[in-house]
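pasting for ref
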Amino acid sequence: MKLAAINKKQYRMMNNRVQLGLVAILAILSVVFGQVLIAFWGAEAMPDGSTGNFNLNLLGVILAVMVCTVLVRVNRNKPLFFEVYYVWQVKQLQNKIFKKLAAIQSAAKDDNQDALIILLFYYQSLAMVYELDDNTLTMSKVNAELEQVQNQIDSLNLGITADDFEESLLGKF
């Protein structure tokens, strides 16, 4: 995966709209599906006030989540949603790298070129995502780590860039 330039303003606007829309759809559909299921298969209220329809309400929530998942899958490749979906993919990839980060950092100490490629991509992508999400609290730490990796690459005279990263490199660690 290559790091792409993302328009922060457009990303933030679309990300907020997508999140708000999904929350609203999830809430509305959960209630609607729950009520429809209760109307067809629900139990009458007991003397103590309980209905025993928890499972039907839970099924309504599950159905609503499924609808939201389908909506995301259908719309993920639309140009309007490019930034939101792309950043989501980058975050998923960062999570995969984070799970193997200790092994990758250990290999990077031994000047492993693949480890250095992964770390360079990881820290550059973190900086990009943190900037997009206005997460400035840990930005200095990420920049310091990125500078350290870049200095190591420069000292080894390697022509490594973040564009050299491929997800298959993670299989080595």
